[in-house]
Write a structure and sequence with these properties.
heterodimer; A: 478 residues; alpha/beta; 9-stranded mixed β-sheet; two-stranded antiparallel sheet; 11 strands; 45% helix; elongated; B: 624 residues; Rossmann fold; 3 domains; 8-stranded mixed β-sheet; 38% helix; binds zinc ion
Chain lengths: 478, 624
């Protein structure tokens, strides 16, 4: 439904929903529950594969505000993408300085408001003239937004947005064939899942007693062919590592490979590639190299990014969690073990036995993490999120957001960026933008907005410049 | 500001006028297509033709913004056109057809356009349009997306790389033996349940026989078993058709106990593999599961299997046959439960119905933003391809393509990578060492002219001297070569030739360094009787090229590859992950049918040896 009001503050107030922003985390908890009860949600099928139910649920609890002087194509492109992806509530605020004191609801535009409104029944729209919204930037209306997208390049509306301090802000504009997107926030942004390349660590070189005992329980050299074929590859790896150590041969790719062939040929006939568990073992031989080391860089980055406890709920939870991981690491000399181990070509019985060893240790480590969290008074983090982060330690991260004060700064090494800023100043009233540029930039803005809202994938850090002539993009911190 | 004024300011009056006079073709009205249609209308292009065979599905609505819930099941092309018509200054023409339909879209039809935009979701159509562009010398903007990844590639025929200049990954198919005897991953069980089991039990019955070459095994015992099993399934189909619910336990026993026991008897299979465990005695219970996101126990899968098989048997009384459709819950549940029971038997991790839906539907992730970016890039670069921008070079080799970078990589400083277009690959069988022409065949001659007569006319006119071959490239069947002349005496009327058939004449000298005549690909066009009795062969400038065997010159190739490396590293990877069939469910089923089928219509084909320089894995798959 569209909710339009031009002249009365009353209308404005009626749409204020308290603490919409704070629903994010609650949504997250709900999500994990949804994942268990959820059915098939066809409209979002294709994007659920990208950010999952947890991401989609955060979107369906978000309220995004798009601010623009004119009702430009860039603004419509942004709103279109946000609506399609299922943002719960979208508020558009447009300026009155150009005499356009009405919402252009005529049927003259492919992306007219009537079209945007009907695109997704899950989305609630509010369209405001700037005269209808509270002047005070600290007003709770402004604080009810999850994110504000500002497409103005000058004027009083921009001045008002520039005073918003608490809400994450995306600024963007395009002129000729240049465009930029900038992420601004009062604190860094934490990523719960960067969706980076999947890796795992079986701790084969840093075993705890039960894992060592399990691996020691196989007398590989005296097994039948059939028994060897049913071994999980980690057992093969362990034996190769042990044998190399006893011979004082340094462990590297070459020595591991030679040792594998020797072990294989002493028991089995035919080429090594016939035996899938050997093939897997060789492919995973990196698990034998020393992987223990300093506290992971991505987690250190999160701790160093914040000088104090973050204000935004999800950021705060990630930060608190990582602090506890650090405490755990200082106590134990290692990270907590993940309950998840990769599929292995082996007999089900052996695989399940091995999985149980990891699961027991993971449960033990988790309970210690829970104890530390409680001790630090971090008891608000929902347990599903804790589980997710424990599985996902390598894919947590934090990025630096830009500051409001540098929003209009030029930088000498980016002449195109400066050109764009000067075009903005010169042509504020007569921007001409090709429809293609509006489509590209609008989609980039929405995409960054969704990364911020879901805390998944890595947003631009923190300014992106796009040149439509060369298709060149550059990213820089401003 | 009016759209027009804005545009004139962006590109200039002259270019604007040119756009107003232009006719363009948009192939595909899906994710990229809806966006492109909007972008092209906003460019005020004179006339836009939109082709799409598909109809609208609920899962399209998260990105195909021209469609609404009420449009579901309506044709995409026409619905998209209607949605934008009242805002459009462009003349719009829509077709609900397959772009490869030669009757609807003969070669001459493509000739009317200034540029062609591909917004397709499958490999076959992409390659086809690429070839038509090579024939008509029309620029093509190729594009694709998958999740956050996307690409655009402008193609200037005979100048820059064409779609086939780099090899593309084909949709995964599995050897029959993996699916039927030795599954090791969840997807193997899903393919078995969907393509094999469901197809045999409920889909339109087809006489399918197994072609030994496609089995992926030489084990006599295993092959015999696979064939026997197919025949037994026909018997099961009769059980299903009988509608007798008491037979469901027989079906369960046959599929999950007897068949597994028969496999276990083939001892060779289990020397290096873990043996499957046949389904034990299970009593049906009343706790039928409902949570589709949860992984069900073996018992729950069996219970649901029984329930949904009953439903499908009831449906067979009303419907002559049932095709698998991921959005048809009964068919989805049948496939999911059957796949999971098989997974339990083969010690493979079972999956939730939700997961299996994605696997069986072969759903590729898709979002609004990537499609909008890619469509924007496509329309933006087309202005350069059409030589309408004055401030930048429009030289083909200076025009950039674009790949969106992976959204997960925090270290990369690029959102897009933008290599300039590469020259065409000299070894590409589509764009290099080939000439193309339309061959007009008067209907009057087909009854008395033989393939031999035609071949003789062609080799003398175009100076083919040594060994040569003739290939029908629509079906990839060999019609003639130096040791296959069985079909030469046939009259042309006895072949399946029609307007739209491609005939490729190719020099077959295989000695390294030989000077070969360029191949010629003819597009056959049948013309009415009264146009004369004579076969007119078009004049072509005949060039030669030096043949390089890829085997003898491996070193040269390596150097070429190395030189190319820094430019293409990203993109080869990107293209491989991107050029995927959006909904290859159909294709995959067809592939399997191809594997299992012998009944290809005339002309009979034999297995041709592909010329080494033309060897192309895709073609191999299509060959029977
Ligand atoms: Zn080519």
């Amino acid at each position: 439904m569209i909710n339009t009001s031009f002249d009365s503050n009353q209308g404005g107030l009626s749409c204020i929903r308290t603490s919409v922003k704070d629903q994010g985390p609650r949504a997250l908890v709900q999500v994990m529950a949804d994942q268990i009860n959820g059915g098939l949600d066809d409209r979002y099928d294709r994007q659920l594969m990208i950010w999952g139910h947890s991401g989609q649920d955060l979107l369906s609890q978000s309220h995004v505000c798009v601010v623009d002087d004119n009702q430009t194509l860039l603004m419509r492109e942004c709103v279109k993408s946000l609506a399609l992806m299922g943002i719960h509530e979208i508020t558009v605020v447009f300026g009155s300085s150009n005499g356009s004191d009405f919402v252009n609801k005529s049927n003259s535009d492919i992306l007219g408001f009537d079209a945007l409104e009907s695109m997704n029944p899950d989305v609630t729209f509010h369209i405001w003239n700037e005269n209808a919204v509270p002047i005070d930037s600290q007003h709770k209306l402004w604080n009810s937004f999850s994110i504000v997208i500002c497409l103005c390049t000058a004027g009083p509306l921009l001045q008002r947005v520039m005073k918003l301090s608490a809400v994450p802000l995306i600024m963007a504009s395009t002129n000729d064939n240049l465009g930029f997107v900038r992420l601004i926030g009062s604190e860094p942004h934490c990523v719960i899942d960067s969706h980076g390349h999947f890796t795992f660590d079986l701790r084969l070189n840093r075993m705890w007693p039960e894992l060592a005992e399990y691996h020691e329980s196989f007398d590989v050299k005296n097994m039948s062919q059939e028994e060897v074929s049913s071994l999980p590859y980690s057992v093969l790896l362990y034996n190769v590592g042990k044998s190399l150590k006893s011979k004082n041969i340094p462990i590297n790719r070459k020595s591991v490979r030679a040792e594998f062939i020797e072990l294989h040929d002493s028991i089995l006939s035919g080429p090594l590639t016939n035996d899938l568990n050997f093939v897997e073992a060789e492919r995973s031989s990196f698990l034998l190299y020393d992987q223990s080391g300093p506290f992971p860089h991505n987690l250190t980055n999160i701790l160093n990014s914040f000088h104090a406890e973050p204000n935004s709920t999800i950021n705060r939870w990630v930060y608190q969690f990582v602090r506890c991981i650090r405490i755990f690491y200082d106590l134990r000399g290692d990270l907590p073990v993940s309950a998840f181990i990769p599929d292995m070509e082996s007999s089900t019985k052996l695989f399940n036995a091995q999985k149980a060893v990891y699961q027991r240790k993971a449960a033990k480590d988790k309970s210690e993490i829970m104890r530390i969290l409680a001790k630090e008074n971090y008891s608000l983090i929902p347990e599903p999120l804790i589980d997710k982060m424990l599985e996902n330690l390598k894919h947590l991260d934090a990025i630096k957001m830009g500051s409001l004060s540098s929003a209009t700064r030029t930088i000498s090494e980016k002449p195109k960026f400066n050109k764009l800023l000067s075009l903005q100043n010169d042509r504020h009233d007569t921007t001409f933008v090709s429809p293609a540029m509006a489509s590209i930039l609008g989609a980039m803005v929405s995409q960054e907005c969704v990364k911020l809202l879901t805390h998944q994938y890595v947003p631009v850090e923190n300014t992106l410049l796009y040149d439509g002539d060369s298709n060149e993009t550059s990213t820089f911190i401003l | 500001m009016a759209r027009e004024t804005n545009l004139v300011k962006c590109i200039g009056k002259e270019s604007f006028e040119k756009l107003r006079d232009m006719k363009v073709l948009l192939v595909g009205a899906g994710g990229i297509g809806c966006e492109l249609l909007k972008d092209l209308i906003l460019l005020e292009i004179g006339e836009i033709h939109i082709v799409d065979l598909d109809t609208i599905d609920l899962s399209n609505l998260n990105r195909q913004f021209l469609f609404r819930k009420r449009d579901i099941k309506q044709p995409k092309s026409n619905t998209a056109m209607k949605a934008v018509q009242r805002f459009s200054n462009s003349k719009l023409v829509s077709y609900q057809n397959n772009i490869m339909d030669t009757e609807k879209f003969p070669l001459s039809w493509f000739d009317q356009f200034s540029i062609i935009y591909n917004a397709l979701d499958n490999l076959a159509a992409r390659r086809y349009v690429n070839k038509m562009c090579q024939f008509t010398n029309k620029p093509l903007i190729e594009s694709g997306t998958s999740g956050f990844d996307g690409y655009i590639q402008p193609i200037f025929p005979s100048v820059t790389e064409c779609f086939d200049c780099t090899t593309k990954e084909t949709p995964t198919t599995f050897p029959v033996c993996t699916i039927r005897s030795t599954p090791s991953q969840p997807i193997h069980c899903v393919v078995w349940a969907k393509n094999f089991l469901f197809g045999q039990l409920f889909a339109e019955s087809s006489e399918e026989t197994v072609n030994d070459q496609d089995l992926g095994t030489d084990d006599k015992e295993e092959i015999a078993r696979i064939k026997e099993e197919t025949n037994e399934l026909h018997a099961l189909q009769q059980l299903v058709k009988s509608g007798d619910e008491t037979k469901i336990t027989d079906i369960l026993k046959k599929l999950f106990v007897d068949d597994i026991n028969k496999l276990l008897k083939i001892e060779n299979l289990w020397k290096t593999r873990v043996k499957p465990t046949p389904l034990g005695a299970l009593l049906p219970s009343d706790n039928i599961p409902t949570d589709l996101a949860q992984v069900w126990t073996l018992q729950e899968n069996v219970d649901k299997f029984i329930e949904v098989t009953k439903t499908l048997m009831l449906r067979l009384r009303q419907e002559p046959f049932i095709e698998f459709d991921k959005d048809d819950d009964d068919t989805l549940l049948f496939v999911a439960c059957a796949a999971n029971i098989r997974s339990y038997i083969f010690h493979i991790a079972p999956k939730s119905v939700f997961d299996i839906k994605q696997m069986a539907g072969n759903i590729i992730p898709a979002i609004a933003t990537t499609n909008a970016i890619i469509a924007g890039l496509s329309s933006l670069v087309s202005l350069r391809v059409l030589n309408l921008l004055s401030n930048v070079s429009n030289n083909p080799l200076e025009i950039p393509m674009a790949f969106t970078a992976r959204a997960s990589n925090i270290t990369t400083n690029r959102y897009l990578s933008n290599p300039t277009l590469a020259p065409k690959n000299p070894h590409c069988s589509v764009s290099s060492n080939i000439q193309r022409a339309v061959l007009k065949i008067p209907k009057a001659i087909v009854e008395h002219m033989s393939l031999y007569d035609l071949n003789q006319k062609i080799i003398s006119k175009y100076e083919f001297t040594g060994e040569y071959s003739v290939l029908d490239t629509n079906t990839n069947s060999l019609l003639y070569d130096f040791d296959f002349d069985d079909l030469e005496c046939r009259k042309l009327s006895r072949f399946n030739f029609r307007t739209g058939t491609f005939l490729l004449y190719k020099d077959e000298e295989m000695e390294d360094g030989a000077q070969l005549r360029q191949s010629i690909e003819f597009y056959l066009e049948f013309v009415p009787e009264n146009s004369g009795e004579d076969l007119q062969l078009p004049n072509l400038p005949r060039d030669t090229y030096t043949y390089h065997s890829p085997y003898e010159n491996a070193e040269d190739e390596q150097t070429a590859v190395d030189a190319d490396q820094d430019r293409t590293e990203d993109h080869i990877q990107a293209i491989e992950t991107l050029i995927v069939d959006d909904e290859p469910a159909e294709d995959e089923r067809n592939n399997l049918k191809r594997h299992l089928s012998n009944s290809i219509p005339s002309p009979p084909t034999k297995t041709p040896k592909l010329n080494a320089s033309q060897s192309d894995e895709d073609d191999l798959i299509l060959l029977d």
